[in-house]
Design brief:
This protein has 479 residues and is mainly α. Helix content is 56%, strand content 7%. The protein has three domains: 12-143, Fumarase C, Chain B, domain 1, CATH 1.10.275.10; 161-232 and 272-399, Fumarase/aspartase (Central domain) (Fumarase C, Chain A, domain 2, Up-down Bundle), CATH 1.20.200; 412-466, Ribonucleotide Reductase Protein R1, domain 1 (Orthogonal Bundle).
Length: 479
């Protein structure tokens, strides 16, 4: 960084344990952030806003706690709280700059947050940025804290907030859209398919209802996994022992964080365990991967059922949202379903990286937390954004091709399955083979061979009856 060609008033000097450095006078970040910017020019990816907000919420809660407990002066406490509120309102977001691939445990990002809040607090108090003797990033903003307990707490809070604001609403909307389409398509009979081959008839509506049930069950799994995120290791300080913290600090900080976030948070039963184990993040990530896998399956099903329009299944029509080809006029592609699969593949990759990072901790700390933080929070947010877009631009506008669905159902050789109880498996197999070889319908061959009467055959091969779903209570003998 070339600094000598700038007027002296454009720069300020800060000092840390390694020496003095010049920074832009207007910058709210400080010397440790500057060193991180120089050391980690890796990806150009900056911290996710949700993650930064979680860190700032922690700083606000800890300032209030430490002020209340008399650990830092009230004047400084209030200045830090005001600075935090300004960041939470959207200000100074361009000051959080450290690459997501950075110093182990997240120290660089953590100090970036501490420095921005300290320098803004100094301004609020009428002082100059960089005068850390009055408001220190370490001694005041970070009082009673360590990267080692702040960062895992921030991942927990950011994960919970992202789930509540992004993924859960999107899952509910997608589930509702699928349920609505299930009702709309309930009377449409289509051919089922197993092994990509003809199978017994099903209702198009039940296909959509099954997808809705799948998403609903995934939300339950994710909610169950995320319960572990509510247990905070904040107050463990550097190694989980609570060194340099007030005896009431961890409980009061959890109470204030609960009030600020609307989440039900509590101190972990063992602070050292909460610092060392990344299992809660692995659990949530695994539940997200599980959801992503089924979303891929659903998106592929949508593409197959919409394939064509002349040479594919074309049982449904996905809404065209943009031209599909740079060379073929009039072509429309299932782009929302394609995008969904790509995002889900990324989530699966993130999950693999989280698993590797989680087992890479040593002794009292896992230093791979920056990778876990980005991958977990990003997974939640891109899955939520994807499901919201898929619902809006695809699911809500799907229409059915009644005639094509009916024709496939009536022409399927798998209808012979319904004849098994009446003519036996071997006779049914012979009828199917004859139909495929000679082009005759199943009905014609059964009647020609005298295996059933026309009345019996009409009753057995009734598509509506064959495709009707059993009552959920039928197997219990409950009407």
């Amino acid at each position: 960084m070339q600094m000598t060609d700038k007027p002296h008033t454009d720069w300020r000097t800060e000092r840390d344990s390694m020496g003095d450095r010049q920074l832009p006078a207007a910058a709210y970040y400080g010397i440790q952030t500057l060193r991180a910017l120089e050391n980690f020019p890796i990806s150009g990816i900056k911290p996710l806003p949700t993650y930064t907000e979680a860190c700032v919420l922690i700083k606000k809660a800890t300032a209030l706690t430490n002020g209340e407990l008399g650990c830092i002066p009230d004047e400084i406490c209030q200045a830090i709280v005001r600075a935090a509120d300004e960041v939470l309102a959207g200000q100074f977001r361009d000051q959080f700059l450290v690459d997501i691939y950075q110093a182990g445990a997240g120290t660089s990002h953590h100090m970036n947050v501490n420095e921005v809040l300290a320098n803004r607090a100094l301004e609020i108090l009428g002082d100059e940025k960089g005068n850390y003797k009055r408001v220190s990033p370490n001694d005041h903003v970070n009082y009673g804290q360590s990267t080692n307990d702040v960062i895992p707490t921030a991942i927990r809070i950011a994960g919970l907030l992202a789930l509540q604001t992004t993924l859960y609403p999107a899952l509910l909307q997608a589930t509702a859209a699928l349920d609505s389409k299930a009702d709309e398509f309930q009377d449409i009979v289509k051919s089922g398919r197993t092994h990509m081959q003809d199978a017994v008839p099903v209702r198009l509506g039940e296909t959509f209802r099954a997808w809705a049930q799948i998403l609903s069950e995934h939300q339950t799994r994710i909610e169950r996994a995320s319960e572990d995120l509510t247990k905070l290791g904040l107050g463990g300080s550097a190694a989980g022992t609570g060194l340099n913290t007030h005896p009431k600090y961890r409980h009061r900080a959890a109470e204030i964080l609960s009030e600020l976030t609307g989440l039900s948070l509590k101190p972990a039963p063992h602070l050292m365990a909460a610092m060392q184990s990344m299992a809660p993040f692995v659990g949530v990530s695994g539940a997200l991967r599980n959801l992503a896998q089924d979303c891929v399956k659903i998106s592929h099903d949508l593409r197959l059922m919409d394939s064509g329009p002349k040479t594919g299944l074309k049982e449904i029509q996905l809404p065209p949202v943009q031209p599909g080809s740079s060379i073929m006029p009039g072509k429309y592609n299932p782009v929302m379903a394609e995008m969904t699969s790509m995002v889900c593949f990324q989530v699966m990759g993130y999950d693999a990286a989280i698993a590797l990072a989680a087992q890479a901790g040593q002794l009292e700390l896992n230093v791979m937390m920056p990778l876990i933080a980005y991958n977990l929070i990003h997974s939640i947010e891109i899955l939520g954004n994807t499901l919201a877009a898929l619902t809006r631009f695809c699911l809500l506008g799907i229409s059915a091709n009644h005639e094509r669905c009916r024709a496939y159902a009536e022409g399927s050789l798998a209808l012979v399955t319904a004849l098994n109880p009446h003519i036996g498996y071997l006779n049914a197999a012979a009828v199917a083979k004859d139909s495929l070889a000679n082009g005759k319908s199943l009905r014609e061959i059964v009647l020609e061979r005298g295996l059933m009467s026309a009345e019996e055959l009409a009753q057995v091969l009734d598509l509506e009856s064959m495709s009707a779903m059993p009552s959920p209570l039928g197997d219990l003998g409950i009407a």
